[in-house]
Amino acid sequence: MQSLQEKASEWSGVNPNDAFAIDETNLYRKLGLQTFINLSTNFYNRVYDDEEEWFRSIFANSKKEDAIQNQYEFFVQRMGGPPLYSQRRGHPALIARHRPFPVTRQAAERWLHHMQQALESTTDIDSDSKIKLLNFFRHTAFFLVAGDELKNQKQSIACKHAASKPAAV
Amino acid sequence: MQSLQEKASEWSGVNPNDAFAIDETNLYRKLGLQTFINLSTNFYNRVYDDEEEWFRSIFANSKKEDAIQNQYEFFVQRMGGPPLYSQRRGHPALIARHRPFPVTRQAAERWLHHMQQALESTTDIDSDSKIKLLNFFRHTAFFLVAGDELKNQKQSIACKHAASKPAAV
């Protein structure tokens, strides 16, 4: 059975080395806190204004300012900065925290569309960092699509209509 | 509704500041790769030899050497070292990857019992690092107990016998 990482790589077209090239340099130190705040603000302004209602509605139960803070605190922590996210909310636990949302391939592509636009229109992000971030985001988005499938496996188990083989994670 | 972090703090008795004091210094640089390999080897030797069959059996479908590698690679990455875990397996996604296992409070306490013994019998871990690691482990263990409860919430939703309110994560 394919692992989460294998699925993420195949579906995103980004191999793990490129996805985690974000760790070659400390991008937090290179770009700074304000750049990540700007990026997440820019991103969620686009998401909450999305003309595609099906995508915009995924976020309807979250306050925009909370979404922005959760995202930039995670980015800062993951990119080598202070662990702002964990101090406030605990482990990122990315798949579990996305459980309430339908993370389909279509949603991943729409998320990436807005993030690419946000990256392009946020100043002070050099092109090398931009490529690294995009590869990380693309791989992660499809990692979460793979994680979303675990919900369906569990449904079968929960309802006892299928074999209760544990998910290979 | 209590967040994962709030549940983890209440049940473990460790507040987030103490849990994430591991980030005050780079423990990977302080302790080194070999110490983490030794710690995980020591830990899993105890687990796979546990006289408590109910706990030992949780690990029956995993190879000991895989369990050791997964654990020390995660520790190294989380404690400020190279991202060994993500390069090989993707995001830690701690809650999702513990889905196949029954992470009860009793299991958390047994895990911590073995880890405390392992910490005490692994050389080259100074007492300050030991306290930081134990606080992190204790908080994380109960964070995963809180995460384990999400499975039950989902069961209700999956079987359509209960309200389909998304989990507050």
From TrEMBL, chains A, B:
Domain of life: Eukaryota
Protein's UniProt keywords contain Transmembrane: no
Keyword Heme assigned: yes
InterPro entries: GlbO/GLB3-like, Globin-like_sf, Globin/Proto, Hemoglobin_trunc
Family: Belongs to the truncated hemoglobin family. Group II subfamily.
This protein's UniProt keywords: Heme, Iron, Metal-binding, Oxygen transport, Transport
Name of the featured protein: Two-on-two hemoglobin-3
A molecular-function term among this protein's GO annotations: metal ion binding
Signal peptide feature range: none
Record Pfam families: Bac_globin
The organism of origin for this protein: Abeliophyllum distichum
Membrane-crossing segments per the record: none
